[in-house]
Amino acid sequence: AAGSPETAAGQLLAVLGIGAGLTPSADDASAGLLLAARALAGTPNELAAVQRLAQLVAEGASIRTNAVSAALLRHAGEGRAAHPLVAAVTALTRSGPDVELRAALDALLSLGHTSGADTACGILAALRALRRPTERGVPARLRAVRGAA
Fold it and tell me: For the packed helices 25-40 and 83-93, what is the interaxial angle rounded to 10 degrees?
C-alpha cells in the first residue's frame, strides 16, 4: 500500500469477513500478512508502520468480522499466533534447511479446512511486498520445496 499504514488498513478492512469458515478466508490471509509483516520489519520505522497497520485493522475488525476473527487479527498484529503460523513465518523469513521449511509449511497447510492455505497466502503476500534484496531466494526455496513434494 505504498508505505502507508492507513492505505493498507483500508485495503485489509475492505475484505474482512469475506469467505467461508469460522475465520473467513480474507481474515486468515490478513492475519498471515500482519504476522509476516511484523517479522519482516527491519527498522524501527518499519515496525512502527506495521504496528500502526495492526492497530487500525484491530480497531476496524470488530465491526467487519466475527469476534473470533477479530481476536485472531489482533493477536497476529501483535506478533502472536498458533505455533504452525509462527513456525511457517520463521521458516520463510530466515534461512535454514529446506526440510524445516517443508515441515513448517505442511503443518500450516494442515490447519482447518482452508485456514492454513488462506494464512499462507497472506504470509506470501507480505514476503512478496516487503522482502529485501538479501531475501530474494525465498521464492526459489518455495519452488524447490514444492518440487520435492
Answer: 50
Contact yes or no for 23/68 (Cβ under 8 A): yes
pLDDT at 58: 96
Q: How far is residue 72's CA from residue 94's CA, in Å, rounded to a whole number?
A: 24
CB-CB contact of 137 with 96 (8 Å):
no
Quote the pLDDT of residue 132. 54
The cell for 104 is: 513448517
Q: Is 29 helix (H, G, I), strand (E, B) or coil?
A: helix
SS (H, E, C) 32-95: HHHHHHHHHCCCHHHHHHHHHHHHHHHHHHHHHCCHHHHHHHHHHHCCCCCHHHHHHHHHHHCC
Q: Rounded mean pLDDT of the chain?
A: 85
Contact 27, 65 (CB under 8 A): yes
The gap from C-alpha 103 to its chain's centroid, in whole angstroms, comes to 18
Q: Decide if 21 contacts 113 (C-beta within 8 A).
A: yes
Q: What are phi and psi of 45, to 5 degrees?
A: -65, -40
Nearest to 97 by CA among 148, 27, 132, 29: 148
What is this structure's pTM?
0.84
